C-alpha cells in the first residue's frame, strides 16, 4: 500500500518529491495531479482545511480498490510556537487539532466539542509518531489547524492558553485528517517551521530553510513509514 501526502502549495509538494529525485511520474485526480515519489503519492491540495479535505477525499476515492492508501500525511511548512519549535525545526503531530472550530460566547471561545457535537482532534498512530520523531529529529506535540494565520502576540497567547503544549500552527492538517477518517485511513502531520507564531513579520520568515528541512525529513521518513505499514498490515491480519 502507498501513502498519500497532501501539501497546500506546489512548492511544498516539490520539497517532498525532491527527497526522491523529483519522482518518476504523475497521475491525474479530479482537479489536481499526484506526483509519485518513493512510497508517497504527493498532492498540492490547496490552502486551508476545506481545500485540503476536498483534495484528500478526491485522491482517496480515486485510489484503486486493489491498492488503497494506508496513511495520509499533511505536510508542509508552518508557524512554530517559541521556544518549543524554533524556526528551522521539524514538528510531528501527536494531535491534529482544529483550533478555531467552534463558537465565540460571552465567556470566550467554545470548541465544537463543547457545543455538544463534532470533534476537534485526531490522534495519529503513536508508534508512527515516535518513530518519525526519532528518525527525523522532529519534536512531537500538538499541531493546530487554523483558518486564519496568527498575526499578533495576543492571539498566540490565546492559542497556547487554550491548547497547552501546542508546537505549531498550519492551515490544512485537520482537513486532511477529517477526510482520511471518512475513509478509515489514519493521518500524520509533519511540518517544518518557517516562522514564529505571533506578530506577522515576513522578513523574519525562512521559507527556503523550512522547505529544505522538509525535503530532508521525507528522505528519512520513507523507510519509517514503509516499516510501520508492514507491521500495521501484519497486526490487522492477526486480528
C-alpha termini separation: 19 Å
Weakly predicted, low-confidence segments: none
Oligomer: single chain
Strand content: 25-35%
Overall strand count: 12
**Taking strands numbered 1, 2, ... along the chain, how are they ordered across the largest sheet?**
5-11-10-6-12
Order of helices and strands: EHEEEHEEEEEHEHEHEH
Tell me about this structure.
Belongs to the PNP/UDP phosphorylase family. Futalosine hydrolase subfamily. It is an enzyme of class 3 (hydrolase). InterPro entries: FL_hydrolase_MqnB, Nucleoside_phosphorylase_d, Nucleoside_phosphorylase_sf. Pathway: Quinol/quinone metabolism; menaquinone biosynthesis. The chain contains 6 helices and 12 strands. With 239 residues, it is α/β, with parallel strands linked by helices. The strands form 2 sheets. The chain has a 5-stranded mixed β-barrel, surrounded by 4 helices. It has a two-stranded antiparallel sheet with strand order 7-8. The longest helix is centred in the C-terminal third of the chain and has 32 residues, at 207-238. The protein is globular, with a radius of gyration of 17 Å.
Task: Describe the secondary-structure layout.
Layout: E1 3-7, H1 10-17, E2 25-29, E3 32-37, E4 40-44, H2 49-62, E5 71-80, E6 90-98, E7 102-105, E8 108-111, E9 121-122, H3 126-136, E10 139-145, H4 153-162, E11 168-170, H5 173-182, E12 187-196, H6 207-238
Parallel strand pairs: 1-4, 1-5, 5-12, 6-10, 10-11
Antiparallel strand pairs: 2-3, 3-4, 5-11, 6-9, 6-12, 7-8
Function: Catalyzes the hydrolysis of futalosine (FL) to dehypoxanthine futalosine (DHFL) and hypoxanthine, a step in the biosynthesis of menaquinone (MK, vitamin K2).
Keywords: Glycosidase, Hydrolase, Menaquinone biosynthesis
Pathway: Quinol/quinone metabolism; menaquinone biosynthesis
Amino acid at each position: 500500500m502507498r501513502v498519500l501526502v497532501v501539501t497546500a502549495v506546489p512548492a511544498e509538494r516539490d520539497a517532498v518529491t525532491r527527497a526522491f529525485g523529483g519522482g518518476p511520474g504523475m497521475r491525474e485526480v479530479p482537479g489536481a495531479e499526484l506526483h509519485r515519489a518513493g512510497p508517497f503519492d504527493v498532492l498540492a491540495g490547496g490552502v486551508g482545511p476545506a481545500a485540503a479535505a476536498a483534495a484528500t477525499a478526491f485522491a482517496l476515492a480515486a485510489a484503486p480498490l486493489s491498492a488503497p492508501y494506508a496513511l495520509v500525511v499533511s505536510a508542509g511548512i508552518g508557524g512554530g510556537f517559541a521556544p518549543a519549535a524554533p524556526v528551522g525545526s521539524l514538528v510531528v503531530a501527536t494531535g491534529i487539532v482544529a483550533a478555531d472550530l467552534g463558537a465565540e460566547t460571552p465567556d470566550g471561545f467554545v470548541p465544537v466539542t463543547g457545543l455538544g457535537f463534532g470533534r476537534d482532534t485526531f490522534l495519529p498512530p503513536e508508534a508512527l509518531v515516535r518513530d518519525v520523531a526519532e528518525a527525523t529529529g522532529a519534536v512531537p506535540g500538538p499541531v493546530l489547524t487554523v483558518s486564519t494565520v496568527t498575526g499578533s502576540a495576543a492571539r498566540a497567547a490565546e492559542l497556547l492558553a487554550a491548547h497547552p503544549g501546542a508546537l505549531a500552527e498550519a492551515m490544512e492538517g485537520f482537513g486532511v485528517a477529517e477526510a482520511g477518517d471518512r475513509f478509515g485511513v489514519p493521518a500524520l502531520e509533519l511540518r517544518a517551521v518557517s516562522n514564529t507564531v505571533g506578530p506577522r513579520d515576513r522578513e523574519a520568515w525562512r521559507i527556503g530553510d523550512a522547505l529544505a528541512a522538509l525535503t530532508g525529513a521525507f528522505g528519512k521518513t520513507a523507510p519509517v513509514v514503509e516499516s510501520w505499514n508492514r507491521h500495521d498490515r501484519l497486526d490487522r491480519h492477526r486480528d
